[in-house]
Amino acid sequence: MGTVEIQDQIEAIRVLMKKYPILDRSRLSVFGWSYGGYAAARISETAPEGFLKCAVCVAPVANFLYYDATYTERYMGDAGRAAYDSGDITANISNFKKTRLLLIHGLYDDNVHFQHSALLIEALQLADIDFDLMTKNCQLLFFLFYQLLGMACLLTSA
């Protein structure tokens, strides 16, 4: 997980930026929720330095070792520990020194448990990387969707 599909996303962004010159390259950002939050973090880690202005990661899966077994095994099969380690978003976070990160997670999320964001927070702190954090004392964050989009717009304009 987090390899071929991430390269596809980066290439799609490149194609769109080239095809539509009206798009402001200096404000390019990614937004994702759950697996999308994981993908947004992986795009930030994998893309060349300076590719993105910011990433908004809502309830990202940090490491599939700690995620729902049924989902993970469906996509990873009998992959060994190395496959899980290579998909761990806490292992390669140096690009977040240049790409602003807004991390959002509900404390009672029953799909992607807060443990995932806690792992990412710890890795960012140990690497002395600044990031923005929003936690909510609720299970679901759907009612915050438009607030999150507004926050993303603020991050890209700063």
TrEMBL record:
Q: Where is the Peptidase S9 prolyl oligopeptidase catalytic domain?
A: 1-135
What is the superkingdom listed in this entry's lineage? Answer: Eukaryota
Spell out the SUPFAM superfamilies in the cross-references.
Answer: alpha/beta-Hydrolases
InterPro entries registered for this protein in UniProt: AB_hydrolase_fold, Peptidase_S9_cat, Serine_Prot_S9B/DPPIV
Q: Which GO cellular component terms are attached?
A: plasma membrane
The yes or no answer to whether the keyword Methyltransferase is present is no
Q: Which residues form a coiled coil?
A: none
Spell out the Pfam families in the cross-references: Peptidase_S9 (PF00326)
Gene3D superfamilies in the cross-refs: alpha/beta hydrolase (3.40.50.1820)
Ordered alphabetically, the record's keywords are: Aminopeptidase, Glycoprotein, Hydrolase, Protease, Serine protease
The protein's matches in PANTHER family, at most eight in alphabetical order, are given as: DIPEPTIDYL PEPTIDASE 10, ISOFORM B, PROTEASE FAMILY S9B,C DIPEPTIDYL-PEPTIDASE IV-RELATED
Spell out the protein name for this chain. Peptidase, S9A/B/C family, catalytic domain protein
- Provenance organism: Dictyocaulus viviparus (Bovine lungworm)
